Automatic annotation (TrEMBL):
Name of the protein in its database record: LysR family transcriptional regulator
Family: Belongs to the LysR transcriptional regulatory family.
Keyword Transmembrane helix among record annotations: no
Pfam family of the protein (one): HTH_1
Keyword Phosphoprotein: no
Gene Ontology molecular-function annotations: DNA binding; DNA-binding transcription factor activity
Keyword terms: DNA-binding, Transcription, Transcription regulation
Cellular component aspect of the GO annotation: protein-DNA complex
Database matches in PROSITE patterns: HTH_LYSR
SUPFAM superfamilies, alphabetized: Periplasmic binding protein-like II (SSF53850), Winged helix' DNA-binding domain (SSF46785)
């Protein structure tokens, strides 16, 4: 075995190990699939071990590949941290920030960050879901996002960092003539027997669908079947009129035509929102975002959980682990 391993070879291995797909891994690393395959084969020769079982239909890790995985992650994380410490802040380029949907807490954090760092270019993006954004963060095509960090796969969380921003109260969007629309707030028990849309079938919002399933469990509420993704107010109105399916949302969700937004109560379900970025990323824009999030959270009590609030235990632990 060689006494020296190039980090590039470990990155090739890690990308394939996480995607279990050579084409997707090559796209993530911006290399040709042939070059990626060549690097993996070279790593296998240098280690004297077969790392993947390859077939025409699937790729799987061998026991030796499973054994290498945690070592590769630690080695690459250490390299990223070392380089970040010595190259200084990367402030020459714009910082790309996913705010998911206009009007939400993420937009307020971004607006304040721009005031705090007026000489930094903070550019907004709309990725629709932290699961989808996480892949873009790790590929370097996005720098920061917002969402439910605990809802990500642990493999992804290990390569990302986060800062809790808010326990955001959840709500339901109803057709304006729905039986529950006259209520000022909708008790969860009142949704028993309903099917509520929560992004099922959208691979970019898995963390949101999972949160809904945990909230609905044991309450007689079903996650609605996958539906076409409505982009824009007109499409939302059309799909709502066609399906008449309530939609799980947060209380700050922007108003939509021919529908009403009602907060959920008894208990008050909370959506845990974190600012999320790539580990090792150094940029004054990230510092501004973190400062803005902390100031707003402190000023408006965003991280004070109401006594009647509901949140999954895993989320509560992960949100508290940052303090």
């Amino acid at each position: 075995m060689s006494a020296h391993l190039e980090p590039r070879l470990l990155r090739a291995f890690l990308a394939v190990a996480e995607d279990l797909h050579f084409t997707r891994a090559a796209a993530r690393l911006y290399v040709a699939q042939q070059a990626l395959s060549r690097d993996v084969r070279r790593l296998e020769r240098e280690l004297g071990a077969e790392l993947f079982v390859r077939s025409t239909r699937q790729v799987a890790l061998t026991p030796e590949g499973e054994r290498l995985l945690p070592y590769a992650r630690r080695a690459l994380q250490a390299q990223d941290e070392l380089l970040a410490a010595f190259r200084g802040p990367d402030t020459e380029r714009p910082l790309l920030v996913d705010v998911n949907t206009p009007g939400l807490v993420s937009g307020r954090v971004l607006a304040l960050a721009r005031e705090l760092a007026p000489d930094c270019e903070l550019m907004s993006r709309f990725e629709s879901g932290l699961t989808g954004a996480a892949g873009e963060l790790l590929a370097g095509r996005l720098d920061a996002s917002f969402g439910r960090f605990a809802g990500l796969d642990p493999v992804l969380r290990a390569r990302l960092d986060h800062q809790p921003v808010r326990y955001e109260p959840m709500a339901v969007i109803l057709p304006e003539d729905h039986r529950l629309a006259p209520l000022d707030a909708v008790p969860l028990a009142a949704l028993a027997g309903e099917q509520v849309y929560a992004g099922a079938g959208n691979p970019r919002t898995l963390e949101w669908t999972d949160l809904a399933r945990q909230l609905f469990e044991g309450r007689g509420i079903e996650v609605a079947a996958p539906a076409p993704l409505a982009v824009g107010a007109d499409e939302f109105q059309r799909i709502m009129a066609k399906t008449r399916t309530p939609v799980l949302a947060v209380c700050d969700f922007p108003a939509m035509p021919t529908s009403v937004l009602r907060p959920l109560v008894d208990p008050v379900p909370l959506s845990p929102v974190s600012l999320v970025w790539r580990k090792g990323l150094v940029h004054r824009g990230i510092t501004a975002l973190r400062t803005a999030a902390a100031r707003l959270a402190d000023a408006e009590g965003w991280l004070k959980r109401p006594a009647e609030g509901w949140i999954p235990a895993t989320d509560a632990l992960i949100m508290m682990s940052r303090f």
